[in-house]
């Protein structure tokens, strides 16, 4: 396949491989043609994730010295868009890995030496378990110190890619602090999972994970930081997820051969590229709403064929629905409601 990286080659050097061209080739040659079959699988078949790993795309955010691309935000956006518009289930499992990769890259030398090269190569693949940190009320996951390590307890409602990941980045509250730990993605007496039954993206193998007195060695803790510092940073860092919606909208526009929708996709992409961090919520919401509109138009154009499981229209419409509720903050949710239902978007 064009654009794939030779696995025997040395770590990525600047310009040696174009991750955008690689992602687009995989998207068009493999993922989109197989997207309907992938969606009907119990979990995304490992060979598609292996393909992303062999192309180096698990190291998109990783430093070049460790085999990564050290990609800039616009490059990341183009890769995410290409994969999301081809097979959102595959892209969704893959995209979780990068939050954990970045956390490892910013951790201490012991953790970087142990994990970073393997994660860039996709030999170790990660999920995340911290969406509940954004919820108001008592912490869903807590941590307490224990003999040089930590004990974790609580619930993580959305852990994606179970049976396709080796570790999970868990965020747990300890008083006013936030503890970040890499936990093995293996059920045990202190770690239980329950499959989520989803109306869309069922092939992502998303589970609820529950920990009860789960011991984590100190070497598995990547950072301890004030919760409020993370919360402020997180509210400004959700731009990347918006490119998934741009990808879905773009795929619908291309299937419709709609130049007008294509122009709107270009504008949504440009907004995500250029919007200041503090204004990301509006650009994110606009991309998600555009994905809903574009896929609804595709369903309408296809008529009765659109609700057949062999139709990309129904799959893309369900993808767009899913993206309305993925990675929300209060600001994104209000902006989406304002655009879709005319509800107020703030004070």
In short:
This protein has 347 residues and is α+β, with helices and mostly antiparallel strands. It has eleven helices and eight strands.
What's the helix and strand layout?
Elements: H1 19-39, H2 46-54, H3 73-84, H4 88-105, H5 109-121, E1 126-129, E2 141-146, E3 149-159, E4 167-174, E5 177-184, E6 191-195, E7 207-216, E8 221-226, H6 227-235, H7 239-256, H8 259-274, H9 280-302, H10 312-325, H11 330-341
Parallel strand pairs: 1-4
Antiparallel strand pairs: 2-3, 3-7, 4-5, 5-8, 6-7
Helix pairs in contact: 1-3, 3-7, 4-5, 7-8, 7-9, 7-10, 8-9, 9-10, 9-11
Radius of gyration: 20 Å
What is the helix content? 40-55%
Quick one: biggest sheet?
A: 4 strands, mixed
What is the SS-derived class? Answer: alpha+beta
| Total count of strands | 8
Verbal overview:
- With 347 residues, the chain is an alpha+beta fold.
- Helices cover 48% and strands 17% of the residues.
- It has eleven helices and eight strands.
- The chain has helices at 19-39, 46-54, 73-84, 88-105, 109-121, 227-235, 239-256, 259-274, 280-302, 312-325, 330-341; strands at residues 126-129, 141-146, 149-159, 167-174, 177-184, 191-195, 207-216, 221-226.
- The strands form two sheets. The chain has a four-stranded mixed sheet with strand order 1-4-5-8. It has a four-stranded antiparallel sheet with strand order 2-3-7-6, with no helix packed on it.
- β2 (141-146) and β3 form a beta hairpin.
- The radius of gyration is 20 Å and the shape is globular.
- The N and C termini lie far apart (52 Å).
- The relative contact order is 0.11.
- Mean pLDDT is 93; it is low at 2-11.
